Amino acid sequence: MPSLGQRAAHAVIGLALSSLALSAAPLPPHTPGAIFTPPAVLQLTNLQQLDDAEGALRRLIWQLHSAPALHNVTDSRGRDCAQDVDTYLLSAAHAARLEALRAELQHESGAAGAPALHEAALLLQEENYLATLVTNYWWLQTLRAQHEENLAALAARAPPDAAATVQGETATAGERLTSAYVAALAAGAGAQGSAVAALKSSANGLFATYNDERGALAVIVSERARERGENSVEQARDTPCPAAVTQTSGGDKPRPAAGSPPSVYPPASRAAYIEGVVVVRAAIAASGCMLHARVFDSSGVPDLDAAALAWTQRANFSPGERDHHAVAGELDFRVRFKLAQ
Q1: Could you say which DSSP state residue 339 is in?
Q2: Which of 50, 158, 304, 314 is the most exposed place for a label (fewest CB within 10 A)?
Q3: Which CATH class is domain 234-337?
């Protein structure tokens, strides 16, 4: 069975791997702030456990310096991950003290070495706390960069004043996250709980702001595109129609019917906390078969728009009715992509 020190080491390394190897990582928590979970209390009972825990920390520092996902990513301070690692993780003073404690433990064991192990555990506990903050903050900054790419593409097609307003809102939310992060880094042991709670709230607020503001701007861009006669993303049916339905909508227009499969959330969007709503306009045959669909109001995210169109082809519809006969028609409906709370 792994020692406590080894388990602490594995926890820290697992944190880095799940945060930085995004393509191979498990699904993230449902909210961005949930990743800021304080590390488990570290207890050391021998020198080997100290070596294991410090070794894990040093490997994490190396990973943070070398991870390709973090290259060229900066925050509102103009800093990058490597600068924060050098500033906050395993300071020269901490490294020297750990080395001194290690030397002391090489000559003492049992009860005589307990004070040194306790002090080393406290130092490494503080380092693990800081490592959790730095790793996950910079992981969120890589995800924020994806939101920025989507927003920049929309802003280039939007009225300048609307684009400036949205970009101002997201910039302010980004500054709030960074301020909360810096405060959490500086928090003493007694204030860390409240500091992390504020950091969680700021992280959730940042991504909610991106999703809300991007969605509103996407509707404006979609309206402008229709006014200009520009074509939207569309898809004709490329699979056979299902058997004709016998139940109409009861009105002159078609409507969605029960029994449709759930929409498929694009994995990359889910992993980046990207949410959105797509308004689809679909042409429905008198048989209830969807013949053609196009994006009426975009979510501002190509992956979500494409997923909404793909789902429309698998969805069930009831055709409209006129003079007691099923008739073809068009309908607009929303496909929502929202992470469960």
Answers
A1: -
A2: 314
A3: alpha beta
